[in-house]
Amino acid sequence: MAYKSLLTVLTDLKIADTPLRQLIALAEAQDAHAEALCLGVDRTQTGYYYAGANAMVLQETLTRAHTEAAEILEMANDVLGRSGTRWAAEDGIAQISDLGRHVAHRARFSDLVILPRPYGPNRGSEVEPVVEAALFEGHAPVLVVPDEYTPQGRPKTIMVAWNESVESMTAIRQALPFLQAADLVRIVVIDPPTHGPERSDPGGLLSQMLARHDVRCEIDVLSKTLTRVSDVLNRHAVDTDSDMIVMGAYGHSRFREAILGGATRNMLEKAAVPVFMAH
To answer: What CATH number should be reported for the domain holding residue 197?
Structure first.
C-alpha cells in the first residue's frame, strides 16, 4: 500500500513553497504522481457590495484572482519542472464562497492532500476552508505542513495520538503507508479513562493491530500536565524528536472548534512538524 496520487492546493504565493516541496519529497519516496492545483481566489462577497457598485468592481476582483493564479502556476511549474517526479499543475479561479466545491472534487481522487498550515500570520481567509473541504467534502487524508519545515519523504519517528475515537482510528488506517515505513511509531495516550475498555492496557489493542502490519510500536502513557491536550502532544513530539503527528480531526463540530478552540485547531496553530489528519 502506498500513496500514488498526491495533491496540493495553492492559493497564496507567500506560503506555497513548503507544501510544494513536501509534495515533491513524498512523490519521490512513494513513486507517486504529484499534482498542484493553483487557485486564484476572489475573496469578496458579492452579496455585500455597497449601493452603487457596478460591474467594474467585480471585474477588478476577477482580474486580481486571475493574476494570482497565474503567478502561483508559474512558480509551481518552475519547482515541479526541476524535480525528477511525475507531475501536473493547472490554475483556476474560484469565489471564496464556492472554494470548497473545487477543492473537494480534486481531493476525492487523491490519496493524500498536502496543505500549508491554515492558521498563523500571512494567511488569507481561504486557507482554512481548503483544509476543511479536503477533509469533510473530499474525504481525503490531509498532511498539514508548518512553514519553514524541511521536507521529508519518509518520516522516521511518527507519533500517533490515540484516544479510542473513530476519528483517531480513521487517521491511523489512512496513515498506514507512513507507519509501515517508519523506524518507530509512538502510540501516545493521555490520561486514559479509569473505566474505559482499555483501562488495563492503554493502546495495547492498537499496538497489536499495527504490529500485524509490521509496524514497530511503543506506547507512551502521559498525564495531562498542561491545560491543552495539543500542548502535551506538541511537547512530547519535541521531546521524542518525532517527524510527524497522526491524529483524528475535529472530534467536535467545526463551528465549536472555530469559536471555542479544540485539539485540532490548537495543534494546527502550534505544531512544529507535519500533522496527518483524517475524519
So the answer is: 3.40.50.620
